[in-house]
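does this look right to u?? 5-amino-5-deoxy-1-O-phosphono-D-mannitol version
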Amino acid sequence: MSLASMTAVMCSIIGYIGDKDVAQILIDGLERLEYRGYDSAGIAGLKGDSFTILKRLGRVKNLSDAVEQSMNFGNSGIGHTRWATHGGVSEKNAHPHVSFGGIFTLVHNGVVENYESIKTFLDERGYEFYSDTDTEVLVNLIEYHYRKEQDGGDKFLRSVQKALLHVRGTYGIAVLCKYNICEIVVARKSSPLLIGIGENEMFIASDACAIAAHTKNVVYLNDGELALLTKSDFSITTMKNEKIDAVRCKLDWRMEDVSLGEYEHFMLKEIYEQPLSLANAMRGRFSDDLSTAKFGGLQLSPRELRQIDRIVFCACGTAWHACLVAEYLIERYARIPVEVEYASEFRYRNAPLEKNTLVFIISQSGETLDSFAAMQEAKRKGYMTLAITNVIGSTIARESDGGIYQHSGPEIGVASTKAFTAQLCIVAMLALLLGRLRDMSFDEGTSFVQALVNLPQKISQVLDSGDRIRAIAEKYAHHEHMLFLGRQLMFPIALEGALKLKEISYIHSEGYPAAEMKHGPIALISDKCPCVFLATQSDILQKTISNIQEVRARGARVLVVSSEGNEIPRKCADDLIVIPDTHAALQPILTTIPLQLFAYYIAKARGCEIDKPRNLAKSVTVE
Ligand code: M6R
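got this back:
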């Protein structure tokens, strides 16, 4: 089988060793991890000296339905959900993969870049391959080294170490060896992996949510580290077998954070959590005189913050939209020049950066590979890198020079909602902090803080109109195209509204600066392409109304989102959503909420899989 269509994976890993039946623990964990990838799923258990392996295409449900009473997976095992980046979605490509001689089985998250040369090397030594994956090459390389190693001691661990020394690329792996029933070996490079420490049992996961129900005591592996786990102990080494002291952490997650509760979808639950997630983002972050913000994790003194001449923000997707809002706010309130870069472009662009430039990465998961690589590129050039992340202990959080945690709680819905508004809140507070260090007066600062304090209550008010937004959304659900238009601070929110809608409803939607429409997109306008206008800013209301009239004149149905106090002429809007007025810097947050609900209810009306939209995965850990 040719590896021309190599399948790289962006997925999730779970593992267990202890006294319990491993199948149920693995499947429960995979269900919690499914939001990370859901093309196929598989588990392997080790009993005696034989593996029991089960794989199914599609959802974890298909896998759990296939488990039969007669199957005995034993008390140690590994599991995987897969999100394929290249090549086919097939059972043979699903993990776990078994080595040619049947000694090892392995799950892998990442890409083995030099798989071709390794495969040729193994081919020449009689190894045969049954899948199209780079992962199968890796498990066979481990077997090759195992056969060469002297017996005794930590032969299993040594073979994995030796194999990984030859691997170029990224990986989080968990490996079982049929001759070592009491051990699992795991390793990581640029792909998250943590160990959960239980009572006479150990867990492995690529994401804490998979094991939070079992233990709160965890150790995050760092890049280049391996761990050998037994049910009662673990040890960490480098690839060269140097011992590493483990840093134990406590997970601060509650089970209700990762359960649906009364909600039909995580996305809806997370939308309704926003009054709380925003309050959490602000908690303890105002100065005693309530005139500015403070962030303990920035690692920069006021004097150092004053010396910043430029800030570069890098991110992907929704987090990139938060960066655009940061640009408007920091330039407006702190007068510091800001540039916004797609992380995937920045990492290869070799951008010239001036002295005293601060590089900020925004990433909900803290694991997005392009964002991490952009951060590494800035660090390599000697720039200070800070991160705004939600996941404590994530790669970006740990590798940055400092940063700000969002405290949004776990975000399970693939479409980011509460994490985005928390990012907006934090960048608004950053603009306040930087503004107060420069020209913003005490009075401006206190009214900014007061508006932030009032924000959760105003979000609740918007959420109270959920039924009305649902009724409006249902009128738009049959359309196949939609434009979202806004000016200034509302432009990034138009982009975000369009992204939310396309992600979960598959309606083709685009965001534009409202006045740009005349330069091309207006050609799309017809009664088949409704427009959503964001007209919440009173200072530029008349300009936005002119843009609305331009599309009305061409037959488009128009939904306007406006703020209390803004006069929207009746003839301008077929549908109108009015949200509370707030400080100009916080309008992006309030305006986002109805757009999230609008997208959600449209997707629901179209019968879409809202929490796991097709082709998407929660965190993109491959290029
Ligand atoms: O975890 P990150 O914030 O780094 O993720 C970035 C994007 O992949 C993410 O925002 C994506 O665009 C979401 N699906 C948006 O809903």
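The chain has three domains: 4-256, 260-462, 465-623. idk if thats expected tbh
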